[in-house]
Batch of 2 targets.
Target 1
Amino acid sequence: MSQLISPTASCLCQGVTIHAKNINPKFTVCHCGSCRKWGGGPLFMLHCGADVTFEGEGLLKNTILRLGQHGLFA
């Protein structure tokens, strides 16, 4: 699998756009009860390093998920 360059994604309402310079093609999956409840199934996560920018950041809400873990939601 080749490395993707400058991939872009957005939330469901498309109010927030995420740009990542490099994405590692390997991914992580979480099957915990919280992830399954919030997303309706397992959460798939990509490793993209720190070179990430957001458009529409004003729509993001920082939420404490559990014991110090934070998540951003649009």
Target 2
Amino acid sequence: MPKISVIMPVYNTNKEYLAEAVTSILEQTYSDFELLVIDDGSSVTYSDLMDSWNDQRLKYIKLAKKQGAANARNYGLSHAQGEFIAFLDSDDISLPERFNEQLRFFAENPEIDCLGTAMLIIPENKKWCFPKHDLDIKLHLWLKNSAFCLSSVMVRTKIITGNKLLFQSEYEPAEDYAFWLEISKTSKVANLEEVLVKYRWHGNNISIAQATKQNASATKAKMKFLLQPEEFENPEQYNALANLLEYPNKFSSTQLPALELLLPRIITKILAAGVNEDNLKMVLRKFYTRLIRNAPSKALIRHLCCSPLCELLRVGLHRQIFYYLSKGLF
């Protein structure tokens, strides 16, 4: 059995990009792995390209029809034999030492089950780092957005199989974000500060081409994670919180009662997971201050500044006075 199973879904990827991605895996300094290239019903023919490597570690699987990225990755998960699962998108590049560095970290930190790394955005060659430590990552995941580059992540297989985790197609194109949320419920996570993957930024990236849909899907996953359906007293509360998370710059006074009711519940849930209270409230305080700053009316500014959430989040009185003065409310 290989130590690592690498899952790479492909759908009409540029052949040059795909060749670079596959080569970056086959040329890893750590060699005990299998690479599962899952062709999700592409109209482009890749069989000749796959045969050109003549490497038994490379397994090319062509699905009869397009099933979507989530199901393509799940197909890879169901066929993976490794102790670890690594991911790489078909247009990204793993640096040669990636597997060695990640396996070394796992050996030295057996409590960690999911590990990502920093990335280099190409062709701009811009380094992008994520939070490094477990609770910092979870705080970012739960209240902001993804704290991993999918193409850098390696996970212990037993965590996936033991918890029966799958990528959920209902959250496409943010299915990876929903997957990290599920992992974060039961596992400790980390990110290396070293750049071990190159993330290719181009017009066909899902994060560019489907940004609006991705944001909506991520909000849907976050809502399900933060609060259970029974915690909402009515659909209006759910819609108010969902709209706030997805469109914070469009906050309205009608959403404030729901926020005042639900935010303390969210805080209690996150604190129960072990997140530092000061760090949590610092993140929420910045978010709340932004709501005040972007409020479209004097009435909403007044309501936000007088809300009990100001005291809960320790929004300083000087901030409130500043906004009152700046809007001519005194």
